[in-house]
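FW: tagging you since you asked about this chain on Friday. Here's the raw sequence from the shared folder, copied in full. Didn't touch anything.
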Amino acid sequence: MPISSGKVTVGTAAVEIPETCVMPFSLQVHNNDNSDAVYVGGPDVTVATGYQLNKLESIRFDLSPLDRLYAISSKSGHNLSYVAFRKSC
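HL: got it, structure written out here
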């Protein structure tokens, strides 16, 4: 099972988490910030409409082929870590 990981810096505009696959895959996302929430969703995610990921919280998403996940914050310089789990790509 190919596994990849990385970090992405999120700000006040939606940022794509740069992982995708042509097969179903899972993406574990961790909010590295120790004071503020970050919000995840589709390309139109906002701090009002996104799934709230609280400080130091993680969540795993099971995604369909070619799905994309985006994140946004109410501040700039917000760091997220992620791990992608794939059967193959």
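FW: The chain has a mean pLDDT of 94.
HL: agreed, and The chain has no helices and eight strands.
FW: great, closing this out.
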